[in-house]
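step 3/5: co-fold with flavin-adenine dinucleotide
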Amino acid sequence: MADAMTEDALREEVRAWLAANWQGLPKPQPGAGGAGWTVSPEQKAWLAKVVEARWAAPRWPEAWFGRGLPDAQARIIEREFAAVGAPGSGQDRTNLWANTLLAGGTEGLKQKLIGPLLRQEVAMCLLYSEPGAGSDLAGIRTKAEKAGDHYVVQGSKVWTSGAATADYGMLIARTDWDASKHAGISFFFLPMKQPGVEVRPLRQITDESHFNEVFITDAIVPEENLLKGLGEGWGVLQTALAYERSVMGEGARGPRSGVAESKTEEPMIALAREAGRLGDPLLRQDLAQVIAYRRLNALNTARAKADLAQGTSSPVMSLGKLAMSRILHEEARVRTAILGAGSLLEGPDHPRAEDANFLTLNAYFTSIGGGTDQIQRNIIGERVLGLPKEPEVDRDIPFREVKSGR
Ligand SMILES: Cc1cc2nc3c(=O)[nH]c(=O)nc-3n(C[C@H](O)[C@H](O)[C@H](O)COP(=O)(O)OP(=O)(O)OC[C@H]3O[C@@H](n4cnc5c(N)ncnc54)[C@H](O)[C@@H]3O)c2cc1C
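step 4/5: write tokens
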């Protein structure tokens, strides 16, 4: 009863705060040159208010902008924010950067960046993949060497989303070549705006340039920006990847034409209605299946996030990310089937076709980024189903002796 009363009081408090403060936000605008979405001054001002009122990360301790609330109460806050369409709450589940930093950062780095990360005042990117290390991420060859009170970094990264605008990159680099492949890796927050970091955009199949090549030559990273200890980067990475997969398990960008979709019914059902195809029995089956997959996946993601809140890097996240990849490909296929030959059109006069085509191409974002579908299947096989591990001949030898074609 006491709990129920606390929950009622909390619900009232957050409702009253939203009623007094939330007035909506202008639609986000694409960044210059299609290089991602920029955070507008209005969004930043709103997030600052949310952080100051301690709604952004209510599960976190008070020392870090939180309220130390249990999950059930934090969800009440998130539901109230969602009910009015206000962003900014629930970042203790979803903010990959801030959660990784809080879990492993030095006091100094946390003081410097946790607030700005919650308020989206600093932009971030992930410096993981390299030309010779993607799925086999522990094979990275970018190196960081100690020099006084800082490290000097050399190497190159690729497919780095958002690098062109990032202030910091979460970097994995090799700091010990005599340790085994996983044990010699450390995890840093690398300042991106410095002479030793060169960013070159890559053009995607969707005609956008969200990701980049990054060349790192004698770049400096202060000792304070090392997370956990030297050689403990693989563990930090597992936590960070689980947050990334949980976000990707919730979906990717929607249609990009800007022409509104139905808000009163499932957009794909509305599309079928608009195209006069809602009576088609085969299409109805496809629609029902995609919608059922989405609902099931939302439940699975909630389960995986509960694991993550307990501090485990849940392999169930892989299930959610894999399911979302299948859903996105399937939704794109069904949208194309609804439009029929009309899906061959393109451009501003044919926004539904443009959206179907964009979603078809963009579905690969989720099936490759954050670890491919095949890698998620390996993780599920080994860590959820308990199947034998893939053989790894280079796992326990010094990395220096690992054979490489490069
Ligand atoms: C849209 C997008 C955004 C991205 N953003 C970032 C980013 O911000 N930062 C970053 O660091 N990286 C990013 N990536 C890179 C991404 O993480 C890698 O592309 C991915 O991990 C695969 O690595 P790879 O491209 O080197 O492919 P490879 O590892 O060379 O894989 C090639 C093929 O072999 C398969 N394969 C490889 N190993 C196995 C195995 N053991 N078992 C079964 N199949 C296997 C793969 O599934 C794939 O089909 C992004 C990628 C995309 C598409």
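step 5/5: annotate
Confidence is low (pLDDT under 50) at residues 32-36.
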